[in-house]
Amino acid sequence: MLLLQTYRNNLNKILATAYLKEPWKMGVHKRNGVVYLDVHKLPERPQSEIDRRRCFWGYSFENLATENSIDEDGSGIDANVEYCSVIKTKLGAHRIVMGAEMDCCDSTDDGRRFYVELKTSREVVLLFHELSVF
């Protein structure tokens, strides 16, 4: 049995490696029977203007989609603030303890609370060309 401690995004990187365009590097450390995974920051490529706008749109969506997200001074988009949940799960005989950033939480009528992860994506427009075969 293995005990693994990591952030959820580290597992995403491992599972999506075949599809990622950006390089990444992960450190693995084993101490007292616990394996820790940590992604090491690599120099980022400069963002284009459209990439900066898309990030801003995502933060703006999170801001608008959550209640009471506007501060007293009228600001509300702060990409440096995050809430993390600690989740325990299993994969076969192996135990995994992972932290995961959560965008917000909501509650049911009976008072139970649950986390919500907000996602945005751009609309994919497929252009088909008419082919003529003679």
From TrEMBL:
Pfam families for this protein: RAI1 (PF08652)
Cofactor(s) listed: a divalent metal cation
Residues in RAI1-like domain copies: 6-124
Cellular compartments annotated: Nucleus
InterPro entries: RAI1, RAI1-like_fam
BP term (GO), one: nuclear-transcribed mRNA catabolic process
Keywords: Hydrolase, Metal-binding, Nuclease, Nucleotide-binding, Nucleus, RNA-binding
Enzyme Commission code: 3.6.1.-
GO molecular function: metal ion binding; mRNA 5'-diphosphatase activity; nuclease activity; nucleotide binding; RNA binding
Superkingdom of this protein's organism: Eukaryota
Cellular component terms per the entry's GO annotation: cytosol; nucleus
Record-stated family: Belongs to the DXO/Dom3Z family.
Biological role: Decapping enzyme for NAD-capped RNAs: specifically hydrolyzes the nicotinamide adenine dinucleotide (NAD) cap from a subset of RNAs by removing the entire NAD moiety from the 5'-end of an NAD-capped RNA.
The name this protein goes by in its record: Decapping nuclease
